[in-house]
């Protein structure tokens, strides 16, 4: 008989963690487990779809709070409604994702006597919570049976908060559709032009402003190259103005959110991750799986565990625009070397396979039985 698993996440809207949760729910449902996904958001905000076998509970409680008292009241409602939803799902294990959601979930589960696993999806040292949420996290995180993080650095950072409870390191996996035979076919261009790709939410964390500045420094020397950025977010207007100010209209494109990034990435020739910080970047994994040589800031956390410097990509000092521009120019100027790096990049699918990913998660879940 399959397991009963309840996954809790703020929403299934745009985001790396949200996509991971949808993939996990669909995988476990296909394996015969009874899976429920609960979100604080309304279902109308969903970007990622779930298998019909997955039960979807959308609480529609994602509202801004006007003042401290209203915030306390709204969170009390969230805890109570979430507790009722978890109780209805009758789980063997509850798995919660993302810092504040983890706190709310642990508060909701306190009187239910249910096995609870939480997961951090970003480097908390670079995205700290405010004083109240930090205090709550310290108070309730030890109530979880286990914490799952994505890198060893984050594990070490979180260890003092967990009160001796188990912490597992499970890196993200490469989605199987990203490495199918069609995607592995050589990229073609009718006019001889070449593209650099970048992907992520248009937010300050992703550092696209740094990337545009770096590309501006090499654009004149490499007129056949362009930059394509996939993603949507609050920084779009500012990035569009930056593109105009640098005279890069037509050379830098913000294409918005793309349901299947593979369709764009497979026609690109290199990939850049310009993030100021990460959790464990899915975008980098997916691009390398398609055979794209990668350049990344060596930011916390994840890129240095994915890229093998000078073997399948380049790691450069965090937020160093000059170094980024030099690395882009070097990669663009040497076609044979770029091809060699791309060939090695494709091996990322062996190091970060879905089989390994779910085997590690199954180990975590078995410990709760």
In brief, what are we looking at here?
The protein has 369 residues and is an alpha/beta fold. It is built from 14 helices and 13 strands.
Secondary structure layout:
Blueprint lengths: L3 E6 L6 H15 L3 E6 L15 E4 L9 H22 L3 E5 L1 H11 L5 E5 L11 H10 L5 E4 L2 H7 L7 E4 L24 E6 L8 H12 L5 E6 L5 H10 L6 E5 L5 H4 L4 E4 L8 H8 L4 E4 L5 H4 L6 E4 L4 H13 L1 H11 L2 H4 L2 H13 L3
Parallel strand pairs: 1-2, 1-4, 2-3, 4-5, 5-6, 6-7, 8-9, 8-11, 9-10, 11-12, 12-13
Q: Please, could you describe this protein's structure?
A:
By secondary structure, the chain is α/β, with parallel strands linked by helices. The protein folds into 2 domains: 4-173 and 353-366, Rossmann fold (3-Layer(aba) Sandwich); 176-351, Glycogen Phosphorylase B (Rossmann fold, 3-Layer(aba) Sandwich), CATH 3.40.50. It has 14 helices and 13 strands. It has helices spanning 16-30, 68-89, 99-109, 131-140, 152-158, 208-219, 236-245, 262-265, 282-289, 303-306, 321-333, 335-345, 348-351, 354-366; strands spanning 4-9, 34-39, 55-58, 93-97, 115-119, 146-149, 166-169, 194-199, 225-230, 252-256, 270-273, 294-297, 313-316. Strands 3-2-1-4-5-6-7 form a 7-stranded parallel β-sheet, with helices on both faces. Helix 5 links the parallel strand 6 (146-149) and strand 7. The longest helix is centred in the N-terminal third of the chain and has 22 residues, at 68-89. The radius of gyration is 21 Å and the shape is globular. Mean pLDDT is 92; it is low at 176-184.
């Amino acid at each position: 008989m399959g397991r009963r698993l309840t996954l809790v996440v703020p929403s299934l809207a745009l985001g790396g963690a949200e996509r991971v949760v949808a993939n996990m729910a669909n995988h476990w449902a296909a394996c015969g487990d009874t899976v429920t996904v609960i979100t604080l958001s309304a279902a109308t905000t969903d970007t990622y779809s779930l298998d019909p076998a997955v039960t979807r509970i959308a609480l529609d409680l994602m509202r801004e709070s006007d003042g401290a008292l209203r915030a306390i009241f709204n969170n009390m409602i969230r805890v109570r409604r979430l507790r009722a939803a978890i109780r209805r799902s009758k789980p063997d294990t509850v798995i919660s994702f993302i810092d504040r959601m983890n706190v709310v979930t642990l508060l909701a589960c306190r009187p239910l006597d249910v096995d609870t696993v939480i997961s951090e999806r970003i480097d908390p040292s670079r995205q700290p919570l405010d004083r109240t949420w930090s205090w709550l996290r310290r108070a309730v995180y030890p109530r979880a049976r286990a914490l799952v993080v994505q890198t060893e650095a984050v594990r070490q950072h979180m260890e003092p908060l967990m009160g001796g409870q188990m912490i597992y390191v499970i890196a993200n996996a490469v989605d199987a559709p990203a490495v199918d035979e069609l995607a592995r076919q050589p990229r073609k261009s009718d006019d001889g032009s070449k593209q650099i790709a970048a992907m992520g939410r248009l937010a300050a964390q992703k550092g696209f402003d740094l990337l545009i500045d770096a590309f501006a420094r090499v654009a004149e020397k490499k007129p056949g190259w362009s930059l394509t950025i996939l993603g949507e977010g609050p920084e779009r207007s500012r990035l569009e103005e930056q593109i105009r100010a640098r005279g890069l209209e037509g050379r830098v494109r913000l294409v918005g959110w793309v349901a299947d990034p593979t369709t764009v990435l497979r026609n690109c020739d290199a990939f850049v991750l310009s993030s100021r910080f990460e959790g464990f970047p899915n975008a980098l994994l997916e691009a390398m799986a398609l055979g794209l040589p990668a350049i990344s800031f060596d930011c916390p956390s994840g890129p240095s565990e994915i890229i093998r410097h000078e073997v399948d990509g380049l790691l450069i000092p965090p937020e160093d625009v000059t170094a980024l521009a030099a690395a882009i120019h070097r990669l663009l100027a040497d076609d044979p070397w770029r091809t060699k790096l791309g060939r090695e990049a494709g091996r990322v699918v062996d190091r970060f396979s879905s089989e390994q990913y779910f085997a590690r998660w199954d180990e975590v879940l078995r410990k709760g039985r």
